[in-house]
Amino acid sequence: MQGTVDGFSYGLVTPLVAYLMACLGGALGLRCTTRSMLVTRSWRPGWLALGSAAIGSGIWTMHFIAMMGFSVRETPVNYDMLMTFASLGVAIVMVGIGIFIVGYRGASGTALFTGGTITGLGVASMHYLGMAGMRLNGKLEYNTLTVAASVVIAVAAAIAALWAAGQVRGFLWSVGASLVMGLAVSGMHYTGMAALSVHLHGAASAPAGDSPASLLAPLMIGPLAFLLLAGVVVMFDPLMVMGKPDWSAAEQKPGIPAHTVHPTRRGHVPGPRSRHHDDSRTPQNW
User: In this predicted model, which residue has the larger pLDDT, 146 or 33?
Assistant: First the structure.
């Protein structure tokens, strides 16, 4: 028996709030990635780690806010707490690997493709691991082609977002990238949900795990508090807003001239050949 799946139990409320959370996490994470490219190597790991945690937390929060609107009419839906928070760890670690590759190798070529692919796979892994944490009186089944499409969306979005972060073109550029990333992450989520069908078991039984309402508190208190803290760090860092490095410091390094002096004809002292040529033009030699 097939269950009746509804992903919009609260209408547009959960999709919109989930999208905003994905945008917030993406904006903070991409700005931290951009900032890592403007600092010395000793500060770079800290900014990249902060960016990884921000993106991972934003994606995770987005997913479970969206899942608050998910229901199966014939059975209650609960969640395994351990599996749920394991998906957060997977998101942060895999997104972190991709971001560190781009942060150290640059947002172009092979590094961008590799880092973006790993980041996108991290987004998809978080989604499907979080879905595996669902507990209901039935079995989850997925359409393979639709799942593949959701993974492609996640990878393409990650590559595009990391490319935009590597452009270092200012605050508005990163805001636009985060809006696109939020739309792509939300699109990946609901594409993955479109691939889902629930095959109900014959005998009705109460599923194990925690209800969605009991998960709301840690969702709002934990990751949202972290995103708020990351937002404060970003807001009070002036270079994060300008998005431009201070190149004046590099010009004052020992051994690096501040300006390159190019030789000109002014002040040129003619050699002997030139003086002979000038003497040959006297009237006595005409």
Answer: 146
